[in-house]
Amino acid sequence: MSLAHPLDRPAWSALTGRWSDLTLAHGGARRLAPEFGLFAAAPDAGAASLADLGALVRAHGEVGLMESEAWPAAPGTTATNAVCWQMVAQSPPPASDPGFEIVPLTDADAPQMLELATLTKPGPFFSRTHELAEFIGVKVGGRLVAMAGERMRTAGFSEVSAVCTHPDHRGRGYAAALMSRVAERILARGETPFLHTYADNAGAIALYERLGFAFRREIILTLLAPA
């Protein structure tokens, strides 16, 4: 399967590139180790690749494919599809002083990060997802109430991800400020920020557009679970 752009098959680009040392393999298929995430990919959607993906699912649990089209269920799995928007920020507005403290998050914050992500469901987040890149957050009374960080990294691009705010602390600009800071950090490295969101999440899309992200293409998230 040809790859005209590293974001056309973002999971494949990450798993065969900057995530390669965090992957499990079966034949030509690759998946992120389960403690880091569920993303998987294979060279193509042919029978051999699907068989390899099925073996990874049976051995290690559910995986998520991110492709330009829906893939069929691999042997021994069931498939669920969702349409996502892939958005890219070529020149987002510079981050301004938010009026509250943004702090770097460390391994000591991992339990609170997982708790917040489990509550708010910003996307797949597991016990070691926070190790994929640097995360930042906002704390109130010592408790983590909002965070954001990076996830997929491909040649020249890095994904803004895990953007979430505790329901009791929404409406205070935390998510926008954190996203702006993460995007600024990515740009400072000479890379381009991108993200994924469900196509029907109008509120999130409106926020991302205000922060300088623009639609690039549709991506289909296919979840393969053990049958």
UniProtKB/TrEMBL annotation:
Domain N-acetyltransferase, first and last residues per copy: 100-227
Pfam name, any one: FR47
PROSITE patterns: GNAT
Domain of life: Bacteria
Entry keyword set: Acyltransferase, Transferase
InterPro entries: Acyl_CoA_acyltransferase (IPR016181), GCN5-like_dom (IPR013653), GNAT_dom (IPR000182), YpeA/RimI_acetyltransf (IPR050680)
PANTHER family, per the entry: ACETYLTRANSFERASE, N-ACETYLTRANSFERASE DOMAIN-CONTAINING PROTEIN
Protein name (Swiss-Prot/TrEMBL): GNAT family N-acetyltransferase
Organism: Phenylobacterium terrae
